[in-house]
Design a protein that fits this description.
Elements lengths: L1 H13 L3 H28 L7 H10 L1 H21 L3 H24 L1
Helix pairs in contact: 2-4, 2-5, 3-4
Length: about 110
């Protein structure tokens, strides 16, 4: 019984697509960096600096940490679903768009 379980697990581990796992890792990293930069930005400039009006509203009510924790958990969960369904191109495009639309503007705002 244990031998059969080992062989099933070994086959599953070999079947992991490293490209997909790499893209998922990049997506999660971008989400964490965005949360960190947003938290710094809200701390420095106030909740109104957040471009997403829903996040700005909830950050003003519940605080940046709680709001970003929930928002990024949902985003990472969605990314994980895309990974499990092998939608790697969509996940890669979302990662690229998020870098261009969130990380670059935050970095420009915070460090210029």
């Amino acid at each position: 019984m244990i031998g059969a379980l080992r062989s099933v697990l070994a086959v599953r581990l070999r079947a992991v697509d490293m490209r997909g796992l790499t893209i998922l890792s990049m997506f999660v990293t971008v989400q964490v960096l965005d949360a960190l930069l947003t938290w710094i930005g809200i701390g420095r400039f106030g909740a109104g600096v957040e471009a997403n009006p829903v996040l700005s509203f909830y950050a003003a009510i519940f605080g940046a940490g709680a709001t970003l924790g929930v928002a990024k958990s949902v985003a990472v969960g969605g990314g994980f679903v895309l990974y499990l369904r092998s939608h790697y191109v969509v996940l890669a495009l979302l990662t690229f768009v998020h870098v261009c639309g969130a990380l670059v503007p935050w970095l420009w705002l915070l460090f210029t």
